[in-house]
Amino acid sequence: MPHVILEYSANALDEPDFPRLLLSIHESLAATGLFSLADFKGRVVRHETFAVAEGAPDRAFVALDVQILEGRDDETKGVVSRICLDLLRGAFPRTAAGRRLSLSVQVSEIHRPSYRRETSAGTAGS
């Protein structure tokens, strides 16, 4: 926890270093003291098939969903979304300049009683 899910349209003009972007999001949110860096899980999904508004080819989107366990107040969620929006804005400057870009961040809650997590110790290089 938290889960960081970045989705974007295939017509985005930028190809940021996605692993670095995810780590920047993880590190920036962990730096608030609200979350532990070890608990983050991030992933990126590129959408080849999409429509924004009326479907014009110059419309693009970048949408980030940050899923956290329920119980955080609105102020905390606002801090999370502001930090993430700033990072996304910096990662997609060409798309913002050359397309009609819908850039969004949503902080959603995971139902605590139904959430289960299991981790393994694993061994690197085995």
Question: In words, what does this structure look like?
Answer:
The chain is an alpha/beta fold and 126 residues long. It has one domain (3-112): 2-Layer Sandwich (Macrophage Migration Inhibitory Factor). The protein has helices at 18-30, 74-91, 93-98; strands at 3-9, 41-47, 59-69, 100-110. The chain has a 4-stranded mixed beta sheet. The radius of gyration is 16 Å and the shape is globular. The model has no long low-confidence stretch (mean pLDDT 94).
In short:
By secondary structure, this protein is α/β, with parallel strands linked by helices.
Question: What does the secondary structure layout of this molecule look like, with pairings?
Answer:
Elements: E1 3-9, H1 18-30, E2 41-47, E3 59-69, H2 74-91, H3 93-98, E4 100-110
Parallel strand pairs: 1-2, 3-4
Antiparallel strand pairs: 1-3
Helix pairs in contact: 1-2
Helix content: 25-40%
Rg over CA atoms, rounded to whole Å, is 16 Å
| Strand line-up of the largest beta sheet | 2-1-3-4
Largest sheet features: 4 strands, mixed
CATH class descriptor: Alpha Beta
Distance between the termini: 26 Å
Could you state the CATH homologous superfamily?
Macrophage Migration Inhibitory Factor
Low-confidence stretches: none
CATH architecture: 2-Layer Sandwich
Provide the succession of SSEs.
EHEEHHE
The DSSP helix count reads 3
Query: Per DSSP, what share of the residues sits in E-state strands of 2 or more residues?
Result: 25-35%
Mean pLDDT over the full residue set: 94
Number of strands: 4
Per the CATH scheme, the topology name is: Macrophage Migration Inhibitory Factor
Number of individual domains:
1
Shape: globular
Global structural class: alpha/beta
